Amino acid sequence: MKRRIISSIAIFGFIITSSAQNKGKIEIGFNAGLNSSNATTTYYSAERSISLNLGASADYYLSDSWSLKLKLIYDRKGWDNDFIQVSGFDPIEFPAYERTNVNLNYITVPLMANWHFGSKKNWYLNFGPYIGFLMNAKETRLDTDIKKEFNTVDGGLSLGIGVKIPVSDKLKLFIEYEVQGGMAEIYKNNEEGDKNMNIRSSFNFGINFLLD
Asked: pLDDT value at position 92?
């Protein structure tokens, strides 16, 4: 009986020690990605826009399997094939409209729990909230600044999955797929009542450095 207890304690101690061997380590990452974004309501989704993002991250390990990941992203969102009023023969009685695209540039800050899995812990799944700060907003037909029409702060949930490809003990490449689902109204004055929210997905490619 004593041997079983001692063996169980030894095994438990080994598991705890193994799972904590990466505790306190920090990985710094840099990436570029391809965004697909639009705005959506309960009943309507705008046409998707393709754009880019640039990001940096810091990943603090709590154990081999879990870490906290903080990102800082220059994030271009928006949508295509909207309409803008242009000068017409009689803009009051007969307003003229032309198609335009809407570009919304944010600095997005997600804070996510990061679960590392697989035999070598190179796969990861992360999830958590994000907050976004609107830097500028333009429509492309007349190149008009439309930032005043939008709320300057956005927020929602972020979810991502990825894989790291080791190059050395301290250097890894990574590929990830990430989704952001907005939960905040993006317009300052929404007279329709149905909330307009940002939706964005991206494929990201980057590099991670393990700090000493």
From this structure: 57
